[in-house]
Specification:
0% of the residues lie in helices and 48% in strands. With 120 residues, it is mostly beta strands. It has one domain. The strands form 3 sheets. Strands 1, 2, 3 and 4 form a 4-stranded antiparallel sheet that branches. Strands 7-6-5-8 form a 4-stranded antiparallel sheet, with no helix packed on it. A hairpin with a 3-residue loop joins β6 and β7. It is globular.
């Protein structure tokens, strides 16, 4: 499996988790590996961190007409995860605000050759 964004996912004994970056100068936390801080713009003060695998759904919607390869309907939304980071994701199950969510790895879409995990 190839992730959509390199250096975005890690895995340990408890399963997959998101990776992020924390600025040691200002404390700003960002999703994924970054080259500079979005808070103070420094590049020499960044440290890799594990963001986590659990969160709370902030908002969600159901898509009823999607692009080729996407089985409809499907839900998407924003999830607040540990360290104050909000991520946009495909959602499964009851995708209502204030519900808890756990990271799972699955295909983004399907084509004739099979599931696609990476958008190019």
């Amino acid at each position: 499996m190839t992730p959509i964004w390199p250096d975005l996912l890690g895995e340990d004994a408890d399963g997959p988790h998101l990776l992020g970056t924390r600025c040691t100068a200002c404390g700003h936390v960002m999703l994924g590996k970054r080259g500079s801080c979005a808070g103070c713009w420094r590049g020499d003060t960044l440290a890799a961190i594990q963001l986590g695998r659990r969160g709370t759904i902030y908002s969600a919607t159901v898509i009823h007409q999607g692009p080729p390869g996407f089985a409809t309907p499907y839900a998407v939304g924003y999830v607040d995860i540990e360290h104050g980071v909000r991520v946009f994701a495909h959602l499964r199950g009851d995708a209502a605000p204030d519900r808890s969510a756990v990271l799972e790895i699955g295909p983004v879409k399907q084509d004739a050759e099979g599931p696609i995990y990476r958008v190019e």
